[in-house]
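Per your request, structure below.
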């Protein structure tokens, strides 16, 4: 079990109580001491008055000069001794001998001093557990005494002692009374002080402390009431400002964290693949899942064609086929996407129906808004990202910045995928004709052989050779020869299906793979291709020339069981066509 914490209120209470009681205790002690001395002085004065009165009475008896003086004095002594507080009354003659008593008391040394000096003496002496106030007073030599005594003769002294027990009792009573008064005052004032301190200091500080506890628990909306303009009020105000700043900072951090998570997520999706179509599809799928972006499930990505100044739809999600058919091509400056492509800036629209810039509309679409992001790499437009939003959605500057960053990530991913695609295509295609090169042809042919064997299909292979190509080079130059190769390549590609594979085999030789095409259909395709080339008049180096080709046809698995053997058989058929007079189509014959 941990130590129990002592709160600030308890500490203040203990401090105030101790300080109050100690302060009042010291004051009570000093006051009682002063009062004791004052009371004692007052008692002494009263004793002196009583002593003077008693002495005067006794002297009056003594000065009467009658023969009854002694009996009267003795009688008065008995009365005086019975007075309250009088404990001792003794007379001494000029020789220091005690008189008017039947039994002498203990000797008193100070009597001799008073007889010598004639000066009264007051002193204390202890008796049992308390003190006596004693006074030795010389008997005055009045005119009446001169009848029996000379003027210089000393008559004697009177010793009067009074008990101080009563005084001490009174002082003790007064001490207790005043002590009680002081402690009551201390308790009352301490309580008032404690309540004042609690209300003025402890309660406001406690509120601030509770506020810090709430902040510690994560309640950043906790605030402290400012009830004064003093230092504590200023502290409370500063605490509230600090809490507000902290809340703002935490919210900013949360937004930064969310934004970083979004950017990281999109970056991951954008770089998951290097294939352009896969990249575009992954980006749209991922964007539609991010609720943080406040976008609809519908989105489009256009790729830019700068030569034609138009946007070509490359990927889409959540829209109808009818919409796709209408929006497959968007000219620069046309509609929101065209404006973004033309200006290179983000275009936002809160309401598609009210925005006059929204010229490309579709009645099947529900009310919506748009965020159009130009996709640029080093100021070069690579495309446009069209996002659908809920209607009347307004974006803050911070959100716009986030979308700009997202656009930058997507732009780089698209550009990298396009570069990769271009690089791969260059590695797979012939730079002059745009057809597949020899290496890619061999790879595709091997794959087609395996596929045909697995599914028990047949396909045909065409081998083409341009007739008298060396003559064209020698006559018109190598540039003209390149133009012929390029034109023949274009003719071949235009005469075959999209599933067919056209390739430049090497030099002036070309190949065409016809998947799932038997020999007789392959011969038909070859004849159509031969005729299309021979019927064309080509302009080469300012001259109109006619080009013909010789074509050999072989079929798998009719003529060969391997890719290499199939090429060999088609090549033999092509040589047979040349030997037969050129500009012919010949099938392989064993």
């Amino acid at each position: 079990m941990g130590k129990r914490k002592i709160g600030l209120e308890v500490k203040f209470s203990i401090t105030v109580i101790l300080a109050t009681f100690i302060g009042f205790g010291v004051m009570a002690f000093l006051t009682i001491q002063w009062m004791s001395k004052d009371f004692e002085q007052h008692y002494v004065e009263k004793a002196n008055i009583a002593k003077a009165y008693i002495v005067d009475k006794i002297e009056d008896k003594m000065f009467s000069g009658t023969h009854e003086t002694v009996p009267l004095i003795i009688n008065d002594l008995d009365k005086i001794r019975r007075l309250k507080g009088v404990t001792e009354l003794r007379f001494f003659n000029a020789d220091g001998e005690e008189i008017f008593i039947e039994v002498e008391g203990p000797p008193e040394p100070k009597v001799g001093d008073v007889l010598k000096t004639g000066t009264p003496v007051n002193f204390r002496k202890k008796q049992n557990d308390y003190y006596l106030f004693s006074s030795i007073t010389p008997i005055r030599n009045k005119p009446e005494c001169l009848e029996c005594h000379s003027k210089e003769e000393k008559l004697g002294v009177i010793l009067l002692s009074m008990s101080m027990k009563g005084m001490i009792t009174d002082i003790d009573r007064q001490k207790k009374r005043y002590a009680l008064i002081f402690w009551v005052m201390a308790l009352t004032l301490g309580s008032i002080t404690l309540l004042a301190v609690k209300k003025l200091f402890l309660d406001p500080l406690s509120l601030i402390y509770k506020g810090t506890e709430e902040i510690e628990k994560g309640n950043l909306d906790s605030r402290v009431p400012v009830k004064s303009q003093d230092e504590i009020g200023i502290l409370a105000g500063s605490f509230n400002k600090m809490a507000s700043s902290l809340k703002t900072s935490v919210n900013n951090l949360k937004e930064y964290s969310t934004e970083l998570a979004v950017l990281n997520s999109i970056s991951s999706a954008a770089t998951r693949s290097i294939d352009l179509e896969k990249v575009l599809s992954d980006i749209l799928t991922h964007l539609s899942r991010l609720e943080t972006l406040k976008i609809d499930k519908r989105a489009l990505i256009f790729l830019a064609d700068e030569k034609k100044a138009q946007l070509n739809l490359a990927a889409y999600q959540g829209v109808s086929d009818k919409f796709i058919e209408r929006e497959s091509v968007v000219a620069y400056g046309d509609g929101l996407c065209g404006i973004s492509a033309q200006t290179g800036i983000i275009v936002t629209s809160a309401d598609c129906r009210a925005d006059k810039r929204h010229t490309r509309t579709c009645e099947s679409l529900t009310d919506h808004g748009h965020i159009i992001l130009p996709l640029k790499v080093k100021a070069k437009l690579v495309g446009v990202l069209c996002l659908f939003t809920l209607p009347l959605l307004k974006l803050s500057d911070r959100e716009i910045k986030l979308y700009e960053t997202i656009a930058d990530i997507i732009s780089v991913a698209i550009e990298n995928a396009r570069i990769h695609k271009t690089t791969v295509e260059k590695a797979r295609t012939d730079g002059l004709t745009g057809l597949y090169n020899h290496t890619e042809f061999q790879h595709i042919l091997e794959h087609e052989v395996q596929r045909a064997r697995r599914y028990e299909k047949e396909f045909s292979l065409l081998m083409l050779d341009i007739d008298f190509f060396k003559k064209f080079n020698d006559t018109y130059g190598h540039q003209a020869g390149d133009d012929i190769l390029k034109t023949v390549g274009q003719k071949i590609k235009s005469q075959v299906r999209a599933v067919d594979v056209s390739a430049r085999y090497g030099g002036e030789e070309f190949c065409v793979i016809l998947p799932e095409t038997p020999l007789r259909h392959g011969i038909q395709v070859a004849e159509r291709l031969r005729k299309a080339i021979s019927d064309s008049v080509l302009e080469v180096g300012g001259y109109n020339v006619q080009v013909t080709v010789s074509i050999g046809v072989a079929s798998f698995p009719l003529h060969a069981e391997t890719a290499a053997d199939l090429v060999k058989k088609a090549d033999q058929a092509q040589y047979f066509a040349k030997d037969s007079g050129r500009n012919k189509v010949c099938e392989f014959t064993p």
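The chain is about 50% helix and 20% strand.

Regards,
D.
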